[in-house]
Amino acid sequence: MEVELLKKYGSVSPGKIENLDGTTETVDFRFSTAIRFYRNMEDADFPLHWHAPGEIISPIEGTYTVTIAGKTVTLQPHDVLIIASGELHSIRAPKTGERYIMNYSVSYFHQIQDMAELFNTFYPFRLVTRQEDPELADQLFAVLAQIEGEYFSTNVCRESEIMALMLHFFSIFGRYEHRQNSEQVLDYPKQQDHMRRFAELCAYINNHCTERLSVEDLASRAGFSVYHFSRLFKENTGMTCHNYLVARRIIYAKALLVDDTIPITEIAMRSGFNSIATFNRLFKAQIGYTPTEYRQMASHG
Fold it and tell me: How far apart are CA 223 and CA 235, in angstroms?
């Protein structure tokens, strides 16, 4: 019965965005606590939109083209694209092909410290291509295939198995990232300590990103010298502290830009930028649109 309902409500092959208001999509997790899974076979394009859940896209057959943050990515079979929460994106489909599309609740997985740290590195998106990283791409794709099997099943403990597979998916990705970013091998206890400290620090930055935060203050809060802090921050998050702070301020600004009664200059100041010129430059560099263009798209779809 549940599988029939999934087919009826479009979880097998959606041809349009179900709940779209302007550019804002509301994802309905009706059959699972934290994910919505599609095996998409339609040639329908998806207009510019964003949603609070994260999104994972991986073609099974054929290509799939996604435009996000001003960049256009054409996915090949078994490529895996992770789109961060809140990112505006549009999708262009070929005439034929199949692909996995999955939305996942960021807040659900943020309860796990390792996941919260990993998700902070996803902005605006992360791409794994089979051409560059065949082993990683195939591993991630295989887990998505397992999730599909459970999602459309009537198995006992189905949701628990899906959550376990999701954690496995992100763990594979996180371990790969750590191997790529580490400049030296750390003993396990120290590695765990660093992960804990930077997860806590990222949470602090997320909550205080609009305030005046200096590298010196953040290094002191994390318990490192400025020199070691800068190196370790990038090792543990995949980006510099400055870029991470800017990314969080832009996420904050994007939420304010939806309200067209707030002047853009005020949004720049409230988001922690010291000038409108800096705000405009950094916003366009990261999102691909000026704040004014972003506001217009968010208002009119």
Answer: 16
